User: Fold this.
Amino acid sequence: MQKMVRSGRNVSLLLANMVLMGAFVKCWSQSLTWLGVLPGGNWSVAWDISADGRVVVGVSDNSAGYPRAFRWQNGTMLDLGTLGGLRSWAYGVSADGSVVVGAANTSAERSRAFRWQNGTMRDLGTLGGSQSWAWDVSADGSVVIGWANNSAEYGRAFRWQNGAMRDLTTLGGNISVAYGISPDGSCVVGEAQNISGDYRAFAWQNGAMTNLGTLGGRSWALAASSNGSVVVGVFYNTSRQERAFRWTRESGIRELGTLGGTQSVAYDVTADGLIIVGQARNVSGDWRAFRWTPSQGMQDLNDIYGSLLTNGSLLLAATAISNDGRYIVGSGYNGATNRYEAFLLDTQYARCTVHNGDVDNNGCIDDADILTVLFQFGNTGANLGRVDVNCDGIVNDADLLQVLFNFGNRC
Assistant:
């Protein structure tokens, strides 16, 4: 009871000084987070995201100007190091965020595919040649794909599991590259040379590589849905312009169009195959990040989420999307810092979870939590987030009492 009386006095003081304080209340809604750069760096690009949106991986330059693989979590960007050289790149992350894959240079500055976990970067080796590169990882982190040189130094698509690297062969030529893997690890996609030496998008599953075809020239596949039933990527049309595609066994390759310009690239697809992200040129010829759905077609993310952009910021490329479609990452221009940075976009309103009154989720139940409830007092709906402490669809006395009763906890 003393705690509640003391809290009531604090509330009175807060109410008396609200105007003077100009208190800021966090809006529990869609959000855009710029991830920054490594210490001393000037740019960053995000390439993948965990299922819950908490972990992002990608590449940033460091203070010496070298590209380095990073893992971002809770506002902190961690340099994952190298295999003895100066450079590294991170391209894939497991669903829980614990496993990261990519490429890193050795002391001889040769690139090697790596798998990082628990602070340790492991060299995955090659297929008998000098170099390798990992592009993606299955949801559980057990299967890694990419390319590796064989003994003849031809790059070949590989699938690594349980310490063994398997050559996925080609479509009749000498070279192949694997760029993406379905979340369940069963389907690998990429590009491979056919017997004529032309590059075609492929899907490898159950030990067989399937030519996905093209609508013009070269084609390459970059990502697959949960079981490989939907594949996305790029092909060159008859004018040698890059165009994003969506492939299914029933319909084959279908072009996704552009944002009014001449080029587009599809980088990733959700587990259900219904949402695709990438980049496309607009009518002015500028690259912009896009989201494609069967009902809406291709939409510029800068138009959909323009209210989240300030200070001349732009979303230039959407490189990955979470399996459920909620989170999108990529690269853009941050007008506040005047540099190109990785971004994390949360496209949904915060979901409500019953809690003890820590509205801003900072570990301390204090005046800020009370203020948030007071400013949104009386609001109703399903998108109230943590301010609806008991998740009953309305911010009222019950929510305020929960904050007051636990005031000071963990502070």
About this structure: Helices lie at 2-21, 301-304, 367-375, 397-405. The longest strand covers residues 84-93. The CA atoms of residues 105 and 275 lie 34 Å apart. The domain at 31-346 is CATH 2.120.10.30 (Neuraminidase).
